[in-house]
Here is the input.
Amino acid sequence: MALVVAAAIVRDGRVLACRRTSPPETAGRWELPGGKAEPGETPEAALVREIGEELGCLIEVDEWFDAVVPIDTAPGQPDLELRAALCHVTAGEIRPQEHDAVRWLLPDELDEIDWLEPDRPFIEILAGPKVVHRAFFFEQDEAAEVVALLTGEGWEAELSRERFHGEDDDEDQPYAVTTDAPAVIVESLADEYGGWFDVPADDTAPAASPLDLPSAPKRIKRLL
Here is the structure.
């Protein structure tokens, strides 16, 4: 099993994304920079070397993610697995050698770009859990139209039949739209289409926040 390493390089709470130029099937998509470890090379040494070659800067590894992600390979090619680490730049400026664009993204901006599939589990960790909202409608057509509007704008949205506690008559049960769209959008659509926005009973509790990315380097025990 060959190892591929990737760096989630953090600066001022933002994560560096790099856009690939090759091979053709991945050109134009985004990734955490990195590459294959050489035989006998430690993951940390491989990541420092790869970032030096790709971005022309020196990094230090702060923390490895626990996840290990398999990478699909062509028949006859060795199996690959991907590991990623939080890192920070210690010397030099980022000057891409193998990518045609870079972006610094806040955790809530990470889903704005098209990431390569092997990187997505790490992006989900960096972004943190999604906040889900619901709206209710008595007419199925109206609920379906709201779902179509939300998914057309790139949000996830599902339609289901809601059954309130103590109610047995399906004709009186509303249709629920569950989505990761922001509350202000869901509430506005609920008003527009004659429904109502669901405010959870514990709405006063703090919402789950994205991963608290370091604003300054931290020193912890690293993988040897």
Observations:
- The longest strand covers residues 80-91.
